[in-house]
What does this fold into?
Amino acid sequence: MLEFFKMSGAGNDFILGDNRAPVWDYYRMNRMVPAICARGTGVGADGVILLENSKKARFMIRIFNSDGLEADFCGNGLRCAARYAMLKVIAGKRMTIETRVGVAEAELTKEDEVLATFPMKASAPEKMELDVRGKKVTGYMVHAGVPHFVIFVKDAGLVPLMDLAPAIRSHPSLPEGGANVDFLEHGKEPFPYRTFERGVEGETLACGSGALAIGWLLRRKFNKQGRSKLLTRSGKILEVDYEKEKSALVAASLRGEARFIYKASLSDEAIREFLK
It folds into this structure.
C-alpha cells in the first residue's frame, strides 16, 4: 500500500507522495505515472509530485507529467507540494523547496492558499509568427520555468483549443520538446486564459507557469505595473507578480488555492506490475 494525497492547485490536480525514504523508487515511474493519472482507470490527475531530501532546501520536488516524463517546473504543483509538506509536518507554514530551476520559497497565507516565489529567467518575450496548417498564428514565446507560447484572443472561452493547440505545441519553430500553449483574453482583469499543457497533452483547468508567463509578457511587452490577476478555467484566480530584476533573474511570485482533497493509498493490485 502506497500512501498519497490528492491535491488541487486552482483546478490543476496532482498526486503527491513522500519519497524521502525512497519507497517510490521501487517502481518504474515512466509506466506507473500514466496509469495512476488516468481518469476512470486510475486515480486521475494532471501529474505526480514526489517530495525528496535536499541539501539546498527543506526538501526537493520531482514533477512528473501525466505522460510519465519528468518536468523542470510546475507553478501549481510547487504550491500544492508546500501545502502537502505542512499537512505531513515536513515543514511549517514557511519553507524552501528545491526545484530543477532553482530554490523556491513558499508560504501558506491562508488554510488553502499558498504564495510561492522562485527565481525566473528575466528573458524578454519573443514575438513569433508560425505557419500552422496554412494559417499565420502570432504569439509570444515566454520562458517561465518551462516554455510557453502565448496567443491573444478576443474570447478565450470560444477558442477551439483542442483543434488548434496540438499543432502549435509541437511546431518546429518552437524550442526542442515544444511548448505549452496559452490563449489569453486581454480585456478586463482578471484576465481569462486557457492552457494546453505539454506532457498532459490536453487542457488543464489551471496552469501556474502559464499564469507566470502571461504576467511577465504583460509587464515586459505591455508595461503593466503591479500584480496581474488571471482567471483560470476552473473559475479560480491566480495572482502573479515580479520583483525588480537582479542580473539575469527575477523573483516571480504565484499566489492561489492549494486544496487538500483526500488522502488514500494505492493498492498492491494497482501498482505491482510497475515494480522494477
